[in-house]
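User: Fold this; tokens only.

Assistant: Input:
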Amino acid sequence: MIEETLHLLELAGEAVNLFAVALIIAGFMLAAMRYLLQLRTLTVEENFTGFKVELGGALTLGLEVLIIADVIETITVDPSFASLQILAFLVVIRTLLGWTLCLEIEGRWPWQSTNEGKQDE
């Protein structure tokens, strides 16, 4: 019974991983299609900025879902102190990536209010 539950949780972790990758790929494809469709209607800078924002959003969402998959896998595959350390490292790296994506997309750090980022410009 316990082995079957662990196996199902392992499959769930793999499914969440695949879902995260699919989100990132779908987000890229959607952003690329919009970029190509808007080539004639927007300026190059506006179009590229929109592409960058959409791509950053897809990456941020994908990273968040990948963290969920890592938590599931850490609990089910090898519940040890070493796997917990690896999980903590992955969460820190993905969090830093999320912060830098937020800075790139919104022009402010996640902990700053919307007005703070605009005052600096």
